[in-house]
Amino acid sequence: MVLITAGTSGESLPSKCYVKTHLITTTINCPNANLTSLPSRLPRLVGKVCLQQNLIRTIPDLSGLAFVHKLNFSQNLLTAFPWTSLRNMTMLVTLDLSHNQLTTVRLDLSINVLRSLRHVHLEYNKLATFSQANLGVSLRGAKFSGHRFIQGNPLLCDCRMTWLAGMARAFQQCWPGCTAAVKNSVLFHSFVFSDALRCDSPDTMKGVPLHSVNLSACSAAQGTITTKSYLKITTINSNATPVIAVSSSHEERNQTATGNQTDQPARAKTVVQNTAVITTSLICIIFLGIWLALRRWVL
């Protein structure tokens, strides 16, 4: 059944839209309808929201769509997305944000509750750098299947993207005879379109396929940095001006452990002294009790 209203208020939708109810959930489909924003007051039991090929720039909070299993906002003008609002969409299976202008992806903010999520389309956006966690595929103790589509983004090929360059190179070397484990990777389909995984910056690497990028220098540099660093104010002597130095948490733990080891003999000596005092006091009390008892017996 085709309708042109949405929400409890009966708000009119463009003529190219239709709302279809199947069992208890509703599908809203408005392709190429010149929409500049989401229809307000969407049905509470909406299952699919398909607003592809429109002119939408911003999306409000989507927390109220608890029953949605498909969101399609592809081919719009989105520059941002309310990632945290996905936390309430535990039934979400497909999220299509392809062909927009997104510069960040933060699935790590809500992926722990998105147990049904299988397909995330992020291809042809403005994503320059991102981590595995940002894509929701590397959280420890969590198991996810499905695919992430990331081809066609203007990648910044620096040390932060070493992980992706390594995966692209491994895929290029095994294709087409890759093992099942590789083919089941969440990024498999992105690597199939490896020609669309190219560096956009820096200028010296512009246009270079990701699998051809040599970031071995990054691995060597990262190997020397194994602990988290932070700024700490240190003073050389009482007359010196405090200076800000970089210290590592590993070094600080070692210093703390060394200090604790230095204090251990003094602490042990104190414990022995206290034990001797307590023992002497108990002996005195016992002898005093015996003396009082004998005195009463004699008298």
TrEMBL record:
Keywords: Leucine-rich repeat, Membrane, Repeat, Signal, Transmembrane, Transmembrane helix. Residues 247-266 are annotated as: Disordered. One of its GO terms (cellular component) is plasma membrane. Coiled coil: none annotated. Residues 153-219 form the LRRCT domain. SUPFAM superfamilies: L domain-like. It comes from the Eukaryota. Residues 255-264 have a biased composition (Polar residues). The chain crosses the membrane at residues 276-294. InterPro entries: Cys-rich_flank_reg_C, Leu-rich_rpt_typical-subtyp, LRR_dom_sf, LRR_TM_domain-containing. PANTHER family: ANTIGEN BSP, PUTATIVE-RELATED, CHAOPTIN-RELATED. This is SLIT2 protein. The lineage of its organism: Eukaryota, Metazoa, Chordata, Cephalochordata, Leptocardii.
